[in-house]
């Protein structure tokens, strides 16, 4: 059914989706949903080369990268997307504090319809009524980020340090017409300066980019069942952050052109999507649809019983992704790849313990050879006290298969899609293909406004005959020709200070100590240091 639905014509696809959705949601008990988990257990991150994204649960701990604004006090406007399914697991991506999402379309400021509730400094811009009753209204948003990055041994090669000053500006408008129609648009621009600034591609330097522009129709299609369809340019974050994200780290987010349909009840949700990548250019409005790369599939979600393990708030999200690239490189072969991902994610809270476990199997074809690969990601933290500011002790372990990229047999190198690279390396030195790491983590607060994550990781590669890959999925040249499984050791620190609900500062650093697989291919130790300020309303 899934395979027929994803590959059917659009009209037939929507019909199959509606039939399948009705059957699924009708069979799911519509008992009341549990309260959303506390902020550090909400879904999210980088979704960042080092980024400001939040954790897979918008929590600093399980992801290895804390939320950029978790310590924020909640502003006057309480923001919660109006869905029957729990907000913490609805697939909106990372939160940037209690009120904001990294994806600004996920915010709902309709509570400010009452003028008496517009008490914040920017509340007048979050609900601008366009008719007498306030049924038609406009929400404006803005984000400014000023950041400086320093990297020694760029590309892990001895040489001149990278020093880059980066500036980002996002401006968005969300038009609501009644309860059933909306149109959302967001323009983005990015600039990069400095001596030896490194990557100056359109994800960093871009005069003006249509980052999002979509129309959405939604409503209640049955008692307790919400459904909708979204058409146009949009991001995609419905799944594990190790695979899908907005890529918060560079100046410009990754976006797609296409269609998404969804439905949810109190205990279950389902989504169907068919998207093409967008190719950005450095100038204004030179960002066409990339028809050579396509991403489609089906996602789902279930709220698990709260009496599991003596009391819990757990979610189970199965997913199927289909990725097609007419120009995919593995080893020395550049050819068409079609890869299918079958995966599941289990995450949430069990008492003071937070867990996030997901895995996927990948199969398909590239250039006439078969693909058989897999990835496993696991993270767990334990709160050493009560409340969101309590210290948390934890660990994470990640495994991604490798092998076959430089041969003629089955390709076993895992594809990382467009996941959050800083989850594995703030400096994007390493990424999850032919990759295995283990890292203890410790998160703590300094006062009421600063949250710190410390982490030490050891990294190996499963296959000595496959390369070591960086955070964007590119092979580190020559590593496939040297022996040795040990890749590197990483020391990482991330600190976020939330000065106000709208303004935060982030300090992030990482030191990579090269081990056998890198040293024998003449790669060097490296240090990454990033500091930035982010203003949002």
From TrEMBL:
Domain of life: Bacteria
Alginate export domain residues: 155-523
Stretches the record annotates as Disordered: 29-77
Sequence ranges of Low complexity compositional bias: 49-62
Protein name as catalogued: Alginate export domain-containing protein
Matching Pfam families: Alginate_exp
């Amino acid at each position: 059914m899934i395979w027929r639905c994803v590959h059917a014509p659009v009209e037939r696809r929507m019909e199959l989706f509606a039939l399948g959705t009705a059957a699924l949601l009708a069979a799911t008990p519509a008992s009341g949903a549990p309260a959303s988990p506390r902020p550090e257990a909400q879904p999210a991150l980088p979704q960042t080369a080092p980024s400001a994204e939040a954790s897979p649960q918008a929590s600093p701990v399980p992801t290895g990268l804390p939320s950029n604004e978790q310590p924020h006090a909640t502003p006057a406007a309480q923001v919660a997307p109006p869905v029957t399914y729990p907000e913490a697991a609805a697939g909106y991506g990372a939160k940037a504090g209690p009120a904001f999402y990294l994806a600004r379309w996920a915010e709902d400021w309709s509570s400010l319809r009452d003028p008496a509730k517009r008490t914040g400094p920017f509340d007048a811009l979050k609900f601008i009524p366009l008719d007498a009753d306030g049924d038609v209204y406009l929400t404006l948003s803005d984000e400014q980020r000023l950041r400086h990055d320093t990297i020694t041994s760029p590309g892990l090669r001895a040489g001149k340090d990278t020093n880059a000053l980066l500036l980002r500006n996002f401006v968005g408008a969300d038009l609501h017409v009644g309860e059933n129609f909306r149109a959302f648009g967001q323009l983005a621009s990015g600039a990069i300066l400095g001596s030896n600034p490194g990557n100056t591609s359109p994800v960093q330097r871009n005069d003006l980019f249509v980052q999002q522009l979509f129309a959405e129709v939604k409503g209640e299609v049955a008692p307790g069942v919400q459904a909708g369809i979204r058409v146009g340019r949009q991001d995609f974050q419905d799944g594990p952050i190790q695979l899908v994200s907005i890529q918060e780290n560079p100046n410009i987010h990754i976006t797609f052109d296409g269609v998404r349909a969804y439905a949810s009840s109190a205990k279950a949700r389902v989504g169907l999507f068919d998207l093409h990548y967008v190719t950005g250019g450095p100038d204004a409005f030179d960002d066409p649809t990339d028809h050579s790369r396509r991403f489609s599939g089906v996602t789902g979600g279930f709220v698990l019983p709260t009496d599991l393990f003596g009391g819990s708030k757990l979610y189970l999200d199965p997913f199927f992704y289909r990725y097609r690239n007419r120009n995919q490189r593995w080893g020395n072969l550049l050819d068409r790849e079609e890869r299918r991902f079958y995966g599941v994610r289990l995450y949430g809270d069990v008492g003071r313990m937070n867990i996030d476990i997901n895995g996927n199997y990948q199969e398909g074809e590239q250039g006439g050879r078969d693909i058989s690969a897999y990835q496993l990601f696991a993270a767990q933290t334990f709160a050493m006290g009560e409340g969101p500011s309590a210290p948390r002790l934890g660990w994470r372990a990640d495994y991604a298969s490798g092998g076959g990229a430089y041969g003629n047999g089955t390709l076993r190198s895992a594809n990382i899609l467009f996941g959050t690279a800083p989850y594995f390396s703030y400096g994007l030195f390493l990424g999850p293909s032919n990759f295995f790491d283990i890292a203890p983590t410790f998160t703590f607060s300094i006062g009421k406004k600063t949250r710190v994550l410390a982490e030490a990781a050891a990294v190996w590669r499963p296959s000595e005959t496959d390369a070591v890959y960086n955070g964007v999925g590119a092979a580190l040249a020559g590593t496939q020709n040297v022996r040795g499984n040990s890749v590197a050791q990483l020391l990482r620190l991330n600190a976020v200070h939330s000065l106000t609900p709208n303004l935060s500062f982030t300090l992030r650093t990482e030191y990579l100590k090269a081990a056998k697989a890198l040293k024998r291919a003449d790669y060097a130790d490296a240090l990454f240091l990033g500091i930035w300020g982010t203003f949002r309303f």
